[in-house]
Design brief:
Protein name: VOC family protein
Domain VOC: 23-137, 151-266
Helix content: 10-25%
Strand order of the largest sheet: 2-3-4-1-5-8-7-6
Radius of gyration: 17 Å
Organism: Streptomyces longisporoflavus
CATH class of the largest domain: Alpha Beta
InterPro entries: Anthracycline_SecMetBiosynth, Glyas_Bleomycin-R_OHBP_Dase, Glyoxalase_6, VOC_core
CATH architecture of the largest domain: Roll
Shape: globular
Largest sheet: 8 strands, mixed
Number of strands: 16
Length: 268
């Protein structure tokens, strides 16, 4: 799961690779209660916060040991959108990427627009209905720390089937794909410059009806079971119990507002 990252948790060529089109470069959560959400994730992951661009409303960047790792914003009171973590995929030109999304039967829900001096962004929806962000970096290149406890470890698209949606992401971002190990497992790894950066998992009829296709953010933790207990203590809930996988031990949980994410202790 963490093949794309160096052994220290930071890329050896962090800045250059992060800007390569298609590379997941940031994750962001838009919640109704910014203060309560900050308190939850601060207690769970040890995050501290500082202000970020507020073009879409109040927004903070989460820091782990002084390194930026994620963003949390506040939705306007009249917005009743599903609360979910959203990955941002790098682009050299967000306007051109947005046009490519439309040309390939996706839609653009927000933007493109400038996020102050940090960069330029858009929010898109793929043909299967999954929401993702597009980020053209300026002063803000993205996450400065990954693959260590409290930071993002991986992003995976959960959808009904991979065949059609893989073609969409390849056309928009130029990904190459790594074939699944088994023909019975509908799973594709997306690569940038020969490096795995994300994956797509087709789950068929097991796709949650209340969520539909969605990107799942995996956060690295030192101990999955203890982190699950902490989530529950803080008012979150368990979605899928802890289990062993080829990538390590993992469990799926939700924060108090319902944002679903996965806790993982990667098998390095």
């Amino acid at each position: 799961m963490t093949e794309a990252w160096g052994p220290t948790g930071q890329r050896d060529d962090l800045r250059a690779v992060r800007r390569t089109p298609g590379t997941p470069t940031w994750v962001s959560l838009m919640a109704h209660g910014l203060a309560a959400t900050r308190e939850f994730y601060g207690a769970l992951f040890g995050w501290e916060f500082r202000p970020g661009p507020e073009q879409l409303g109040p927004y903070v960047r989460a820091l782990l040991d002084g390194h930026e790792v994620a963003g949390i914003g506040q939705l306007p009171p009249d917005h009743h959108l599903p609360i979910a973590w959203t990955p941002y995929l790098a682009s050299d030109d967000v306007d051109m990427t947005a046009e490519a999304v439309r040309h390939c039967c996706g839609t653009i829900g927000v933007g493109p627009l400038d996020a102050g001096s940090a960069g330029r962004m858009a929010i898109a929806v793929d043909p299967g209905g999954a929401v993702f962000g597009i980020w053209q970096a300026a002063e803000h290149a993205g996450a400065a720390l990954v693959g260590v406890p409290g930071a993002v470890a991986w992003n995976e698209l959960v959808t009904q089937e991979t065949a059609g949606v893989v073609k969409f992401y390849q056309a928009v971002f130029g990904y190459t794909e790594e074939a699944p190990a088994s023909a019975d497992f509908d799973h594709v790894t997306l690569q940038v410059d020969g490096r795995p950066v994300a994956s797509i998992h087709g789950v068929g009829q097991a796709l949650p009806r209340d969520r539909g296709a969605h990107w799942m953010t995996h956060f690295e933790v030192a101990d999955v079971d203890k982190s699950v207990e902490r989530v529950i203590e803080l008012g979150g809930r368990l979605v899928k119990p802890a289990r062993e996988s080829a990538h390590g031990r993992m469990a799926t949980v939700a924060d108090p507002e319902g944002a679903v994410f996965t806790l993982v202790r990667s098998a390095f």
